[in-house]
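Extended Data, panel c. Modelled sequence:
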Amino acid sequence: MDLHHILGYILAILVGISLGLIGSGGSILTVPILVYVMAVEPVLATAYSLFVVGFTALVGGLQSMRSKCVDFKTVLIFGIPSILSVYLTRAFLVPLIPETLFSLGSFAFTKSIALMVLFAIVMIFASISMIRPSNIKDTTKNQALEYNYPKILLEGVVVGVLTGLVGAGGGFLIIPALVILAKMPMKLAVGTSLFIIAAKSLIGFIGDLQGDGIIDWQLLSTFTALSVAGIFAGIYLSKKIASSKLKSTFGWFVLVMAIYILANELFF
């Protein structure tokens, strides 16, 4: 095992810790760690990210279920279109993207560069949502849930396609959607979103198994196990550290990483 893999596995623990501390955002680091630290090819890294994010979210979702913080009706309403779109994206749309989209002189805008640029754009939106104070007002547990079915279904499809393309869990999109569109209490929205993320990410990964990519199961299982271990450490630390301050700090870190990815892919 070389130094790059050792560093990557250490960072996998930090991904889990960040998820346990702030409830979302940690998965946005998985692809950059795999690509820039562990030298995994970008398209394959998005597939690995789906497995890591899906399995990690499943563990968190089971923890939330024990606390009765999961609404399974919403998991079905939001999850079914999301799961279908992420599976179709990974199984059919991603393989259809040509290896070179266009060329400008000696510069070739390849499929790998396109996915990393799109991922960086997603990271920028995610960082903004973490940096700025949340304007979402929580609701009470006794308030009845209201379902805006067309908007929830549309949001599910959009999040599913985005997840399929870049391998991110999309929690920063799902949670606001559940709170605003279904009038769901924040804690219930977080637990519910974990199950949605787990289902669509793992099924999206199944779509990749139909392709020609060779999965390094030793790397993937080790990275995932360390990320899951990090979640429990993060949950413990979250009881001692203010999550609002951590969320803002982490948001700035994600923004800097997004700018680095854009500069690296487009100019270097």
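Strands lie at 100-104, 107-110. This feature is highlighted in the accompanying rendering.
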